[in-house]
Amino acid sequence: MPELPDLTVFASNLNTILKNKEVKSIEFFNTKRLNVTREELQKFINNTTIHEIRRSGKEIEFIFSNDISLFVHLMLTGGFYIVRDIQNIKFKIIALTFSDGNSLVINDPKGLVTLKLNPVVNNVPDALDIDSDYLKKKILEKPKMSIKAFLIDQKIIRGIGNAYADEILWEAKISPKSIVGKLPDEVINYLSKTITKVLLEAIEQIKKINPGIISGEIREFLSVHNPRRRESPNGYPIIKEKIASKTTYYTEEQVLYG
Amino acid sequence: MPELPDLTVFASNLNTILKNKEVKSIEFFNTKRLNVTREELQKFINNTTIHEIRRSGKEIEFIFSNDISLFVHLMLTGGFYIVRDIQNIKFKIIALTFSDGNSLVINDPKGLVTLKLNPVVNNVPDALDIDSDYLKKKILEKPKMSIKAFLIDQKIIRGIGNAYADEILWEAKISPKSIVGKLPDEVINYLSKTITKVLLEAIEQIKKINPGIISGEIREFLSVHNPRRRESPNGYPIIKEKIASKTTYYTEEQVLYG
DNA sequence: GCCCCAAACAACGA
DNA sequence: CTCGTTGTTTGGGG
């Protein structure tokens, strides 16, 4: 399951590769999680060109020349592939073939990828667009949530998943069990900066490690949410525990508020 | 807070003392938790005689000769007193004075005792009236509850409180954290028998320790829900922990299902 | 690891 | 301890 930094790089790479390509044909393999009929999607995007591909929250948005958009959520196991022969890809959901003979294939062994044509606009801010005032406002609305549950709640902030929540909290030195209503203002300020810092640095790391990546995930550089590590960079043992129903990695360096 | 066994003995003793006594006057001190006006209660029970006093669930039912009933729930801190001078009792809620000059006083320092004249009939079975088929039926309806929450839920079984739930579960060797849907049939059968056994034996113990009791509670003989004990009768250390929002005492002797 | 929903649970006030 | 209400957590299925 790629998270925001991986998805950001995927979107950037897909945009570079596919921008201005003309969609010559569409093949459907699984439409269970498509919000319209295949005929409708066919009609709307066939013979258009790709105008832009970008990430928003955990979704990759394909914007076509006619202003039509297709939002793709990879869920746990989905992936993008650019191939000349789509037969090489198993567990296909959909394939768009372009006039240059290349195809974009979206696959998913679990079949849980969602495809939404022209979805209703979502006004929950992306994790890269929030500031501390926004966090404080949402904390006032939900003062009793754990910070772990808060950060990964896509109705509050879009884009942070289980792994990066742990990374952010470790970097901000906040225990994942902290109650958001108990966080001092200055800690919220620092958290806000840390969210941006951790995510942007991860994007840079991923670009460095695999510049062309459009599938999979890169996790090797994570400081605590990393089964390969036994200690944080500062030498504290990493604790693995279910918090907010999620496998959570943290250390005693992190202060528990509330 | 007396529980079912204490209340059973209270009812039996009050019945012995007050059966066939004639109500000569009623005094009201706190009618906040009376379901009718004081005038109405006055009108219905003055000059009647007490026909029977019995326990049902956690309530004591006073049945009068005219078939009127008054249900009393002592809540956490209520109590019954039989006195010749009601002035000796603090925190009075109501006092019934009989033709023999004695008065029944119900008091409650917290004022939370409830008095219900002719309440609507409650068809949740009393803890002393259930069988294993009933338990199995209710478990199918709520398979995911913890057994601790299940036993003390007055919408499922009436009469079991926090202390006796612990005693029953210890005696039945079931961990309070067990999920009811995961209990094997034979364990439910045994639990059903254990509920009856623990409650009836407690009634006998209380009668032996204080035959005339109509107030307070007797807890000294409890096996695990007993702050004075550090080990169960079998020598296992007693664990004290919040389960289902209640202070719960249990031991490792008890099997966790689910 | 994702999202959604239902149900259980927790906390609070009356 | 009860009732109701609200908010949060948990678990299952897709």
Task: Describe what you observe in this structure.
The structure is a homodimer of 258-residue chains. The two termini of chain A are 31 Å apart. The radius of gyration of chain A is 20 Å and the shape is elongated. The longest helix of chain A is centred in the C-terminal third of the chain and has 25 residues, at 185-209. Chain A is 29% helix and 21% strand. Chain A has helices at 4-18, 38-45, 132-141, 147-152, 162-172, 185-209, and strands at residues 23-28, 50-56, 59-64, 69-73, 79-83, 92-98, 103-107, 114-117, 239-243, 246-250. In chain A, helix 1 (4-18) crosses helix 6 and helix 5 (162-172) packs across helix 6 (185-209). Chain A contains six helices and ten strands, in the order H-E-H-E-E-E-E-E-E-E-H-H-H-H-E-E. By secondary structure, chain A is an alpha+beta fold. In chain A, strands 1-6-7-5 form a four-stranded antiparallel sheet, covered by helices on one side. In chain A, strands 2-3-4-8 form a four-stranded antiparallel sheet, covered by helices on one side. Chain A has a two-stranded antiparallel ribbon with strand order 9-10. The model of chain A has no long low-confidence stretch (mean pLDDT 96). The structure holds a DNA duplex (14 and 14 nucleotides).
